[in-house]
């Protein structure tokens, strides 16, 4: 009746199978388990049907609890009325003491290991672990369909047919619909390994294992085995215990999952399903299969492959949005995929099962297939005798190898373990050192040092503010200090961070935790890492690991260093001993010599013995903490977390999350962030990051407090208004008063007039320290200029005329600068705000300002020369009121004077490492200079005529500095090619170490950056100035313009010299210029001409060419081998198209290429690899998620080239497939070598190639036609080496149509042709047009014949195209 009631509820609760965990170890029978659960649920005991009861698989649980499977005739209301999707319930046990087994856990998900049967004591011979497949239940997937759920063959049949085998199932989350999991097969494999370790299957004492794996479960098992094969003994011990496995329908080479993609499209598990695909997934699956089959593990383990022989219904969506298996039937996993082709190689290891993919493991009672499987399981388990015999013989061999017995063997093993511990310690130290070196940067802490210390007796109130002190002594969370610009936020944050009172209040957390403080002060005017998310992560990780790293160095590094020294000495002494043995005894030797040699040998042996004793003593002296130290455990996890091929920031994020969630050692972190509004990124990202810092996992041993400051911007209010916070300007009136009074006192003026102004200054300041500072400077200057006229009324009037806002104040400061200096003021501020993160010294900035108004290089060089020659006397400098230190050089003091005069106080000097660096005084100054009316404020009516900005000024300074190097160096065009990542031609001869200095490389990189940005921000070409630089003439200009995307510069150059490009190209083609004396190595940086005797006619010719721009162009575009030889064309167009300086392709790069082609640049003749590189780029676009160069642009250029005479049968070479700098070549590209463009081209490009004469039946070096590639891509190889593995069926069908329509010969037999077209038939494509070609090969060529034919065709083609002596390629 109860069962009927349960069924009447409209659900199948009465048929469900439950798992019951955490049963006390005292429960030994099904009756006891039923009584315990029935009492806890309040239902009759006979309504609890226990189907199995066994001890848990957890090897480390003492005493072990039990686990049961059961069904309920009466389902409690709290179970069947639970919220949808709930699969687990906790059931408290009444009347029991609080302890580990006071709660029973009832679930239906069956995740993890579930033991279904315990063999009788003394009869346990092996374990059988079953792993379910995709979108299947760990228990239910092994049960037959229907209402009767009382039979499950792994639980019920294995104990009956193989009593000595313990039956276990392993469950994991494999659902598809509405899944939120993004785990990969690799993640699932790793989880399986950890479960096996927890079960103790890595121990020598464990029982052998036989696996049963269905579908995806087999891939998880294979992935786990591959991972385990490359691990240490603690994991490989699992493999030694594996006897074999039965793989049921495992898609080793992919499966038909197209019907599943609609279910998971856009969901996190979409990538997992894609990995199973016959098309997109074969790259991963075939690679996994190759690695699996290459393991030595298969020499001892036996794998059986079961495959389905019936079609399976596919999944389709109903009208109500639900999913059902009512779709058209299909073969989900082919025989070849399910058996890894063993159905052809060795049928003895295959098992056909005449069921669908899902039903092939759902055996019912008496199923004939079940008898076959059970016999196979028994056969695999019979191998345990050989397994145990092998392990026993190995143990006996180890015992016989030590004649001193077990005690000595144990001591030796302990020493070996100790030495391994030291070695692991050394690896950890090296890993942590590498981590520190990769993330540490001194500039990360520079901003903190640049902030001025607060005035005496200011900000002390912060520790009397209850809101703040309560937060300091509380449990954790965020605290926000916000305030107006210039209100002193950074100064306060520095005061809090460095104050001892902060740490006295924080110490109330408790003394058992490691207290760590860390900070990050954002600096928008600084370098990139001082304002970026990467900088935040690098700084925090390094600071948090600092105390742990210090302990590692103090406690464990000495042990490692001593061990290394002893091992080094041991190696030397052993080598000497070996040499003495090899030398032997002399035939005739005097007694004295013999005695001396004997003494030396004895001493050497004693020395070696002492070293070995010292090593043993060192090993024995290892502190016990080496195996239990939380520091070592945490650092080990960090080092492991930082490994991998992921991006640098992603690895830092992982490490940061590990430190927040770790449960190894108690840590209390106090983090301080200043100027959050100066973060160079989206504020939502950094806001979520700060919030996430305080939201660790429940098991985390890390507590976090975060205090940060910023302006009260609306996006920040939205995130942090609910946290403790205050406005700084509400509390600083007294501080401002102290600051103003202190400033007056520092003037040394005892004037009541000035002192009387302090209250009025405070009133006008509105809590902004910066305004007070500026106002005090103005009043101080006014008083010094005319003390007699500084009456109370006059000074108050001057104070009242001062602007109330900072922006207006900055305008006043600009107006106070003399008009003759305003242009220099504009240049100074523009140079600082346009800098690309590399700080310039004060002297460099001074010189850059001076050349900002120069029209050409000669004028700039003259200005710099006069600036370097001039000097200012010390007394003059000191009297100027700059307050410079006497340690400064005369030039540094002069630079300070100029910057102070031009900046008017808006620019400050920070001295770091004995060098002056100018920077804007405050973030608000940067915002002021970036305003739309800044130029008008500074230069007035000239603003409309001043077309230059900071980037233009940087170009002038860098250009004159580069051209003025004044020493022989490498040709500048070659430098541009190599250092600006232009790719292409090789240098003509090896480069000497002094060819291009590091400074020259940096100057070139910065010049290229600012030249590009100048065009983009001003809309004006930099040609007028660049053309005057004595660096390689017009050739250098062309290369710089092309490589850096200087569209306007190249346009203007071509407009001024319309015949120059044609003339240049003509000279290249006719090779009229003698280049033997113009080597890339012998160029002057100033003139681009080789060092020659004065009377040398070649030099005169070269100088004449230089004057009209030809010689320099020739040298820039052609690099001649030293001593005379064939020159190599530098790929001018390739540099801009495939490797732009910024790494990002823009429309302007396409415009430059168009301009080159329009002006006569022979792309087909001069860059023969361009077309195949273009085709390779098209292929890369199809294999990548995003297009680096738009496909439409690539196809347009390809058509242009074909119209200009490009050979459509061009073949791919190693050079045309060279990866871009910084990238790793895709292994698939090696499969393209020697193939024609038509082999690789997608259907639309293939049609164009054929239209321009491509051979539709061309052969690659392996003898494959383009039709081979399209129809049988699997024959090209598997995995990453298959260049068309990513193509879908539809794309290959279109390619076949294009090729057959062009008259491509069909090099297959009719049978093979029909087999190839069968896939198109299955997908519903019309193949009649393809079958109409009734011309077939009499027989299919073998691989060897096709390769020979392809090579012969290639050789004939090369002979036809080989140029004669008069037409050697340039």
From TrEMBL:
Residues 391-405, 576-598, 1093-1108 have a biased composition (Basic and acidic residues). Gene3D superfamilies: Ankyrin repeat-containing domain. Residues 384-418, 576-605, 1089-1118 are annotated as: Disordered. The keyword Ribonucleoprotein does not apply. InterPro entries: AB_hydrolase_fold (IPR029058), Ankyrin_rpt-contain_sf (IPR036770), NPHP3-like_N (IPR056884). The keyword RNA-binding does not apply. Keywords: Repeat. It comes from the Eukaryota. Residues 457-554 form the Nephrocystin 3-like N-terminal domain. PANTHER family: AMELOGENIN, NACHT DOMAIN-CONTAINING PROTEIN. This is Nephrocystin 3-like N-terminal domain-containing protein. It comes from Lasiosphaeris hirsuta.
């Amino acid at each position: 009746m109860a069962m009927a009631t349960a069924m009447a509820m409209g659900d199948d609760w009465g048929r469900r199978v439950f798992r019951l965990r955490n049963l006390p170890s005292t429960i030994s029978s099904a009756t006891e388990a039923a009584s315990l659960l029935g009492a806890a649920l309040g239902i009759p005991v006979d309504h609890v049907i226990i189907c199995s009861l066994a001890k848990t698989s957890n090897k480390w649980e003492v005493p072990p609890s039990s686990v049961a499977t059961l069904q309920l005739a009466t389902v409690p209301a709290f179970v069947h009325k639970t919220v949808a999707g709930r699969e687990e319930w906790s059931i408290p046990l009444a009347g029991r003491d609080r302890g580990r087994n006071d709660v029973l856990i009832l679930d239906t998900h069956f995740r993890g290991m579930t033991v279904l049967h315990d063999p009788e004591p003394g009869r346990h011979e092996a374990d059988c672990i079953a792993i379910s497949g995709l979108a299947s239940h760990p228990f239910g997937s092994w049960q037959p369909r229907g209402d009767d759920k009382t039979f499950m063959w792994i639980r019920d049949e294995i104990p009956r047919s193989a009593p000595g085998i313990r039956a276990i199932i392993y469950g994991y989350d494999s659902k598809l619909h509405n899944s939120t999991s993004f785990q990969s097969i690799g993640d699932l494999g790793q989880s399986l390994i950890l479960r096996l370790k927890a079960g103790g299957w890595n121990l020598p004492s464990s029982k052998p294992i036989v696996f049963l794996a269905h579908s995806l479960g087999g891939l998880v098992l294979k992935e786990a085995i591959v991972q385990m094969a490359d691990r240490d003994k603690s994991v490989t011990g699992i493999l030694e215990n594996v006897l074999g496995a039965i793989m049921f329908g495992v898609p080793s080479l992919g499966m038909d999952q197209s019907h599943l993609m609609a279910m998971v499209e856009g969901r996190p598990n979409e990538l997992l399903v894609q990995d199973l695909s016959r098309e997109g997934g074969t790259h991963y699956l075939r690679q996994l299969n190759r690695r699996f089959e290459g393991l030595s593990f298969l020499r001892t383990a036996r794998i059986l492959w079961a495959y389905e022989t019936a079609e399976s219904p596919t999944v389709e969506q109903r009208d109500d949005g639900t999913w059902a298996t009512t779709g058209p039937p299909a073969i989900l996993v082919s025989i070849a995929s399910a058996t890894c082709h063993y159905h052809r190689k060795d049928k003895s290891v295959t098992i056909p099962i005449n069921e669908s993919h899902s039903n092939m493991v759902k055996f019912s009672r008496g199923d004939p297939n079940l008898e076959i499987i059970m016999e196979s399981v028994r056969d695999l388990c019979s191998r345990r005798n050989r397994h145990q015999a092998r392990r026993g013989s190995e143990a006996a061999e180890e015992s016989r190898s030590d004649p001193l017995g077990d005690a000595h063997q144990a001591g030796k093993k302990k020493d070996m373990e100790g030495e391994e511990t030291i070695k692991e310690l050394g690896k950890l130290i090296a890993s942590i050192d590498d981590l520190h070196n990769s993330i540490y940067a001194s500039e990360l802490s520079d901003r903190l040092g640049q902030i001025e210390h607060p005035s005496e007796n200011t900000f002390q109130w912060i520790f009397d503010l209850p809101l703040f002190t309560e937060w300091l002594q509380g449990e954790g969370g965020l605290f926000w200090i916000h305030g107006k610009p210039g209100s002193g936020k950074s100064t306060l944050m520095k005061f809090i961070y460095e104050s001892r009172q902060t740490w006295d209040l924080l110490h109330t957390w408790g003394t058992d935790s490691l207290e760590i403080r860390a900070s990050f002060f954002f600096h928008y005017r600084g370098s990139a890492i001082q304002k970026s998310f990467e900088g935040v992560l690098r700084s925090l990780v390094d600071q948090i690991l600092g105390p742990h790293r210090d302990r590692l160095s103090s406690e464990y590094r000495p042990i490692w260093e001593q061990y290394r020294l002893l091992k080094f000495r041991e190696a030397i002494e052993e080598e000497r001993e070996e040499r003495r043995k090899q030398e032997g005894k002399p035939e005739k030797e005097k007694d004295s010599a013999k005695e001396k040699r004997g003494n030396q040998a004895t001493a050497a042996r004693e020395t070696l013995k002492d070293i070995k004793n010292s090593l043993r003593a060192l090993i024995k002296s290892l502190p016990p903490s080496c195996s239990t130290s939380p520091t070592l455990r945490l650092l080990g996890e960090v080092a492991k977390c930082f490994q991998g091929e992921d991006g640098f920031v992603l690895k830092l994020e992982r490490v940061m999350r590990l430190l927040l969630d770790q449960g190894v050692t108690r840590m209390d972190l106090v983090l301080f962030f200043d100027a959050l509004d100066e973060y160079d990124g989206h504020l939502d990202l950094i806001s979520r990051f700060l919030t996430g810092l305080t939201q660790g996992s429940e098991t985390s041993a890390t507590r976090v407090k975060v205090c940060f400051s910023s302006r009260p911007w609306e996006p920040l209010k939205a995130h942090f208004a609910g946290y403790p916070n205050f406005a700084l300007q509400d509390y600083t009136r007294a501080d401002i008063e102290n600051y103003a009074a202190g400033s007056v006192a520092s003037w040394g003026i005892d004037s009541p007039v000035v002192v009387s102004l302090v209250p009025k200054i405070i009133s006008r300041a509105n809590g902004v320290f910066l305004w007070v500072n500026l106002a005090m400077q103005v009043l101080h200057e006014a008083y010094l200029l005319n003390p007699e006229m500084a009456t109370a009324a006059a000074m108050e009037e001057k104070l009242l005329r001062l602007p109330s806002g900072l922006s207006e104040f900055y305008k006043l400061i600009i107006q106070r600068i003399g008009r003759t200096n305003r242009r220099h003021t504009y240049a100074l501020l523009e140079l600082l705000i346009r800098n690309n993160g590399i700080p310039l010294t004060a002297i460099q900035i001074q010189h850059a300002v001076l050349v900002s108004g120069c029209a050409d290089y000669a004028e700039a060089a003259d200005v710099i020369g006069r600036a370097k020659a001039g000097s200012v006397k010390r007394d003059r400098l000191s009297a100027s009121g700059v307050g410079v230190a006497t340690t400064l050089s005369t030039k540094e003091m002069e630079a300070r004077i100029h910057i102070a005069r031009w900046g008017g106080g808006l620019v400050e000097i920070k001295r770091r490492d004995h060098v002056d660096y100018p920077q804007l005084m405050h973030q608000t100054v940067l915002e002021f200079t970036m305003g739309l009316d800044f130029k008008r404020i500074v230069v007035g009516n000239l603003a409309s005529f001043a077309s230059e900005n900071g980037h233009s000024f940087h170009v002038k300074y860098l250009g004159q500095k580069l051209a003025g190097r004044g020493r022989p160096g490498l040709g500048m065009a070659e430098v541009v090619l190599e250092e600006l990542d232009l790719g292409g031609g090789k240098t003509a001869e090896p480069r000497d170490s002094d060819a291009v200095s590091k400074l020259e490389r940096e100057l070139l990189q910065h010049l290229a950056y600012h030249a590009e940005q100048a065009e983009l921000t001003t809309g004006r070409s930099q040609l007028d100035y660049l053309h005057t630089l004595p660096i390689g003439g017009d050739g250098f200009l062309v290369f710089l313009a092309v490589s850096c995307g200087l569209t306007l510069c190249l346009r203007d150059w071509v407009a001024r010299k319309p015949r120059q490009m044609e003339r240049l190209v003509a000279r290249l083609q006719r090779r009229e210029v003698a280049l033997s004396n113009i080597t890339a190595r012998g160029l002057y940086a100033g003139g681009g001409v080789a060092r020659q005797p004065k009377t040398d006619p070649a030099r005169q010719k070269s100088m004449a060419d230089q004057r009209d721009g030809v010689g320099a162009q020739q040298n820039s575009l052609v690099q001649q081998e030293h001593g005379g030889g064939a020159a190599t064309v530098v790929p001018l167009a390739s540099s801009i198209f495939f490797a732009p300086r910024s790494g990002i392709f823009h429309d302007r790069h396409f415009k430059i290429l168009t301009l080159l082609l329009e002006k006569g640049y022979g792309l087909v003749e001069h860059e023969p690899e361009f077309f195949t590189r273009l085709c390779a780029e098209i292929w890369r676009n199809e294999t990548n998620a995003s297009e680096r160069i738009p496909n439409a642009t690539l196809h347009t250029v390809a058509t242009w080239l074909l119209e200009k005479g490009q050979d459509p049968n061009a073949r791919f070479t190693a050079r045309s497939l060279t990866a871009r700098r910084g990238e790793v070549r895709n292994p698939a590209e090696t499969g393209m070598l020697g193939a024609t463009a038509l082999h690789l081209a997608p259907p639309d490009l293939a049609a164009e190639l054929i239209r321009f004469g491509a051979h539709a039946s061309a052969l690659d070096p392996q003898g494959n036609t383009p039709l081979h590639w399209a129809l049988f891509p699997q024959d090209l190889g598997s995995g990453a080496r298959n260049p068309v593995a990513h193509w879908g069926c539809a794309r290959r069908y279109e390619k076949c149509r294009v090729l057959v329509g062009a008259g491509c010969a069909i090099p297959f037999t009719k049978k093979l042709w029909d087999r190839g077209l069968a896939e198109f038939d299955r997908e519903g494509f019309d193949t009649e047009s393809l079958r109409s070609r009734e011309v077939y090969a009499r027989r299919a060529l073998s691989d060897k014949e096709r390769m020979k034919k392809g090579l012969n065709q290639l050789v004939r083609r090369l002979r036809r195209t080989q140029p004669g002596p008069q037409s050697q390629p340039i």
